[in-house]
Amino acid sequence: MDILAILSKLLIKNGLVTAFVVVGITTHVAYTIAGKFNKKPYASALAIFFGLVLAYIGGITTGGHKGLASIPVMAGIGFMGGGMLRDFAITATAFGVELKEIKKCGFIGVLALFLGIISSFVVGVVLAYIWGYNDVISLVTIGAGVVTLIVGPVTGTALGASSEVITISVAAGVVKSVAIMVLTPLLAKVCGIDNPKSAMIYGGLLGSTSGTSAGMAAVNPKLVPYAAMCATFYTGLGCLMCPSILFLAVQAILV
């Protein structure tokens, strides 16, 4: 057995470790490139772009539907990117939160959650309608995707949307997440995002845990748990509202 065969067998057997190594290398390259251009705040967005490119190449090369995870050696990425580790990472951010700071947010924080979800949903529904979708299920699923890339598939599955529409909802959520990463460092000072309360309102208005976390990390790493925590509530509330209340609202308007 040659060295490549042995290495391949080793990487497949330790798929999750391989996934961490690949993600680590990709992130390192992104931060190195961003650092060369003095643009470190955009390193996270660049890393996600590289990830999307690798996923596309992996899917095209193998003809599979799991992106880079379609390649046997990279199968661990499918597990690493699954719901379990994602939810663990989201939950772990809450350990950096101080309860007294959460209480300061009060009614404004709750209001930010509802305003953020409804405004994102309306924008998504309007764009979907402009693109030519006119059935309620497709409109609501794409609208939910603009809420976050997690809420979209959850809503689409609950309503029985087609795989094409669910994919569009995920794409909409990814675009929003990357946009938040890129724009947050530019707008944080103007918007006054420099304390736990403003970070929580920011997370509640925009959602997208990955986008808000990466964007806030570029502004002030100490504020990441506050933004991420409200963004997590945003995702959960969106999963409840979009397939139920907001679905019924759109149905009542169009039917």
Walkthrough of the structure:
With 255 residues, this protein is mainly alpha-helical. The protein has helices at residues 3-13, 15-36, 43-62, 76-80, 83-92, 99-130, 136-147, 151-159, 163-191, 196-206, 209-219, 224-254. It contains 12 helices and no strands. The longest helix is centred in the middle third of the chain and has 32 residues, at 99-130. The mean pLDDT is 81.
Keywords:
255 residues
What's this model, at a glance?
The protein has 255 residues and is mostly helical.
Topology:
Blueprint: H1 3-13, H2 15-36, H3 43-62, H4 76-80, H5 83-92, H6 99-130, H7 136-147, H8 151-159, H9 163-191, H10 196-206, H11 209-219, H12 224-254
Helix pairs in contact: 2-3, 6-7, 6-10, 6-12, 7-8, 7-9, 7-12, 8-9, 8-12, 9-11, 10-12, 11-12
The ordered H/E elements are: HHHHHHHHHHHH
Compute the number of helices.
12
Task: Give start-end ranges of low-pLDDT stretches.
Answer: none
Strand content: under 5%
Approximate helicity band: over 70%
Mean pLDDT: 81
Please state the CA-atom Rg, rounded to the nearest Å: 19 Å
Shape: globular
Mind describing the biggest β-sheet? none
Structural class: mainly alpha
